[in-house]
Amino acid sequence: HRKQTLVNSERFISDELKQYEERILGSRERLYSLEYQEFIKIREAIIPYLPQVMETAHAIAILDVLQGLAEVAYQNNYIRPEIDNSGKIRIRAGRHPVVEKALREARFVPNDLQLDRDKARFAIITGPNMGGKSTFMRQAALLVLMAQMGSFIPAEEAQIGLVDKIFTRVGASDDLAAGQSTFMVE
Fold first, then answer.
1. Where are the transmembrane segments (predicted)?
2. What is the C-alpha separation between 94 and 115, in angstroms, rounded?
């Protein structure tokens, strides 16, 4: 029997091949149907335990984050920052963790930061295009955030007073991991 006519050829099929094809296609459909039925059964069996499943998933997620932070801190010689109520942010030789990893052959130049609630509440960052201003601001915010969530940070030393806000004005079209500033991208 002719099954299909193609541009440069024709396909033929015998009754026996047609039966095999129908059995294979039918088997696949039955398999999908059985899989779906089993999925429904398992889902129905789990529903009464959903609160415990969600609680366990939440605990596993927290452990996953903590383990990841610990591994990165160990591999990259991060330090434990001193967290206090001083109102000061003092970071010596801080490094941006993402940019530092993206620089495979080049070495990240560490930066110091000193802010004080009573003496220097903010900083105006100036410098040439592609001089690292955006990286520095993001680095400062990221290190403070990491420290306050309990993570070690990439620095030689750090004293970080608790903060409830971080303000910055940074160009959004840059790509720090690729070493492209807003100026370069535009």
1. none
2. 14
